[in-house]
Amino acid sequence: MHDSQTFMSEFPLIDHHCHGVVTSPTSTRLCVESLMSESYRAPPPGTSQFQKPLGLAVRRHCAPLLDLEPLASADAYLERRAQLGTHEVNRRLLGALGIGMHLLDTGHRSSEITGIEDFAQLSGNPVREIVRIEAVAEDVAASGVDAAGFAARFADALRRRGETAVGFKSIVAYRTTFRIDQTAPAGEDVVRAAGSWLAATGNRRPRISDPVLIRFGLWTAAELCRDRKLPIQLHVGFGDPDVYMHACDPTHFTDFLRAMEAWEIPVALLHNYPFIREAAWLAEVFQNVYYDVGAIVNYTGPSGRRIVREALEVGPFTKHVFSTDAFGLPELHYLGALLFRRHIGDVLDAWIAAGDCTTRDAEEIFKAIARDNAARIYALA
Ligand SMILES: [Zn+2]
Fold it and tell me: Distance, CA 323 to ligand 1 centroid (Å)?
């Protein structure tokens, strides 16, 4: 291993988008496999979530941390996992991350996974919060509010939730697609939309999907971000099953990105698969746009190197940020960090070998993506 590889394998990362892990002591096969999928559907009878690139990556890289040979069978892996228990598996995998800080999205299935304090304790790392805008709106609706009072109550709740956070996040792409009007809605339209939404949800946990309310959430968060110099994260493409993928191309959201640029608000585009080139192009064009390829690096397993190479094609090195998008399983945190280091290391080594950059350049590029860009846009000490 030469110097730049040692540097890249040891340099502490900032994971700018991830989620907590499951801690319930009995992680059944069903539970583990369901967390190895971005779908809510079970695989066809007689098949397994291990029969895809992510399964190969888990068996190859995680098995040795559970005292198994690399590429141990899925059955052996799950059996050993059950034997060790969730707590020990979390301890071993999260203890081997080499990550210096996690920015945790606390708004997705939060009752099933660890929150900020628990995850900090488990990982042994500092953890900062990213507040999911739509989850706060749903909390406000569930707490009992009428249509006329919704806007003020939501704005107040978002401000309070954001007090200790380092950014806000929106899942607008999943709930409405990016092909919507991107201006701030008028007050009377918000009252009308809130009325229909609250009436339709009754006693159930409300699920926000009205474009007027989603736009209201985004612009309310944008005002807080403008005042407090915080970034907004936007989920793009792969990462949730309830999407119309073709309409999640982030270039459809150009008007909003431009408006945020005028307000000097950084916007971090998350995941981006299969729109990696579109996201990198937006980062090239707009001063305030950033992007990552979290999630898909795990899901592409052995092909992840090609993904990382594509992410480095055109986007400025100062705009590309590392993330794992890990949710639920410590395997996804571990793989996200390991595969990122390996793939970007391989790509940069090839550049050095071809004379396209110096070792020093490669280290600067790695540092920027691994840590420095996130530290700058989220103002992390
Ligand atoms: Zn996520």
Answer: 9
| 58 CA → ligand 1 middle, Å | 19
- Contact 291/320 with Cβ under 8 angstroms? yes
Q: Which residues pair with 268 in a beta bridge?
A: 233, 290
| Topology of the domain covering 3-22+98-377 | TIM Barrel (3.20.20)
The DSSP 8-state label assigned to residue 320 in this structure reads: B
Return d(Cα 303, Cα 53) in angstroms, integer: 8
Tell me, what's the pLDDT at 195? 95
Please tell me the pTM assigned to this model: 0.96
Give me ligand 1 centre to Cα 234, in Å. 10
β-pairing verdict for 167-170 and 289-291:
unpaired
pLDDT in tens, 274-287: 999 999 999 999 99
pLDDT at 3 over 90: no
The reported pLDDT for the residue numbered 98 is 93
Could you tell me where in the chain the CATH 3.20.20.140 domains are found?
A: 3-22+98-377
Calculate how far, in angstroms, residue 330's C-alpha sits from the geometric centre of ligand 1. 14
- The CA angle 181-270-375, to the nearest 5 degrees, is 120
The Cα–Cα gap between 24 and 29 comes to: 13
